[in-house]
Design a protein that fits this description.
PKF_sf; four-stranded parallel β-sheet; binds 6-O-phosphono-beta-D-fructofuranose; Rossmann fold; single chain; ATP binding; alpha/beta; seven-stranded mixed β-sheet; 324 residues
Length: 324
């Protein structure tokens, strides 16, 4: 393999730049020409492809976002879009790809590989940590720490005013950010999409807290929670508890996607970027590089997309025990 390209796609995640850096520097080290594709599959279709060097990735290991920019491409979901993308790769002599992204990115890569045989190896970049085939995804640790910082701050004001706060964190279909920021922030309850928490249980938890003279409570809600978003849940809870309870809602939103990556994410991203590149060189295709029990592993895209990554329900049990 003489020439490869790297791109980021889907929602950005802190640490993507460290991953790009590892792919580019790894390619230079192995004597392979490396190109960057801007804006994910949209840039592939448009031919927004440029040669990179070791210097192109200087001073980015510490930066959030992605220097290659990212997008969720509707056009790549069409056969015409993928044909244009293939034509552009051919025109630039690209023989293999490293795709940094999540589920949508790898679904696209798998279809593309099946149609055109362009070998692609993925590196898992998403704050949601919802990919089977790796213990952690790039950006998750930073997002948890960002959410935790907010939980800590909200706890101060919640305590000063004797308030109940519902804090909504990201995680489209996944409760990983909610569980980890909730445990670390000492939340009274964590609500996740994977496990139904009846509203009666929320009311019960609050009442138990009051009976033990707790004057403020924090409930962390994952955005994909089945009972609704944090605002809806808060309104329904308010209607169910008697008396003068002061409830507030904070939605953390995209603050969780930005910021400098933690040391953990920078190291993880570097390992996964180099792992993806070296897998590609060694002939891997249609797989995602991951780290399980501190070992580099490759998992077929099909499995990373199809297989669930269950949360550890024992952690939810622990939240309940530790919040008494
Ligand atoms: O997949 C990462 C994520 O941040 C999810 O947690 C969230 O649901 C989604 O992306 C938001 O996407 P967008 O930035 O397109 O609004």
């Amino acid at each position: 393999m003489k020439r490869i390209a790297v791109f980021t796609s889907g929602g950005d995640a802190p640490g993507m730049n460290a991953c790009i850096r590892a792919v580019v520097r790894g390619a230079v080290y192995h004597g392979i020409e490396v190109f960057g594709i801007r804006k994910g599959y949209n840039g592939m279709i448009a031919g927004d492809i440029f040669q990179m060097s070791s210097h192109s990735v200087s001073n980015i290991v510490q930066r959030g976002g992605t220097i290659l920019k990212s997008a969720r491409s509707k056009e790549f979901m069409t056969a015409e879009g993928r044909q244009k993308a293939y034509d552009q790769l051919q025109a630039h002599g690209i023989e293999g790809l490293v795709a940094i992204g999540g589920n949508g990115t790898f679904t696209g890569a798998m279809i593309f590989n099946n149609e055109y045989g362009v070998p692609t190896v993925g590196a898992p970049g998403t704050i949601d940590n919802d990919l089977y085939g790796t213990d952690y995804t790039i950006g998750f640790d930073t997002a948890v720490n960002t959410a935790l910082d907010a939980v800590d701050r909200i706890r101060d004001t919640a305590s000063s005013h004797d308030r109940i706060f519902f804090i909504e964190v990201m995680g489209r279909d996944s409760g990983y950010i909610a569980i980890q920021s909730g445990i670390a922030g000492g939340a009274e309850l964590v609500m996740v999409p994977e496990v139904l928490t009846p509203l009666s249980e929320v009311v019960e938890t609050l009442k138990q807290g009051w009976s033990r003279s707790k004057s403020s409570s924090i409930i962390v809600v994952a955005e994909g929670e089945e009972e609704g978003n944090a605002t809806e849940i808060a309104e329904r809870i308010k209607a169910q508890v008697d008396g003068d309870v002061d409830i507030r809602v904070t939605t953390l939103g995209h603050t969780q996607r930005g910021g400098a990556p933690t040391a953990y994410d920078r190291i993880l991203a570097s390992r996964l970027g180099l792992g993806a590149l070296e897998g590609l060189i060694a002939g891997q295709k249609n797989v995602m590089a991951g780290i399980i029990n501190n070992e580099l592993v490759y998992t077929p895209f099909e499995d990373t997309i199809r297989l669930p990554k269950p949360i550890n329900e024992d952690l939810l049990r622990m939240v309940k025990i530790l919040s008494i």
